[in-house]
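**Reference record**
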Amino acid sequence: MKQFVPLMLLVAGMFAAGCASNQPSKSPAFSQPVGGGSAPVAIITPDDSVAGKVVLYNSDGRFAVLNFPDGRIPAAGQTLFLYHLGLKAAVVKITGPQIQENIVADLIAGVARVGDEVRNQ
């Protein structure tokens, strides 16, 4: 029986160490709200940006026909940006006329291509 006592102590120590490591750790970044007060409040703002595509580009006249499928057409005189493969490629100014979801814009700077993204940021 005396020869099992060290083995029993070893097994008991392993169980105690295993139980101690299974406690959830508390991260200081998530345990207290910022400023010590109540939990932070999320602020939700609607996306008012316009988004469209270039459907036609005339390099001689330096104008593009833009399509806005969601129906939110930018106002005349508004400046927008064209993006090609995620990079800013041109700046356009809305001039009109507008027919349904399409509107004409003059190219101010850069180069436009059919399929470029149109955004106001």
Q: What stands out?
A: DSSP finds two helices and six strands in the chain. The chain has two domains: 5-36, 51-119.
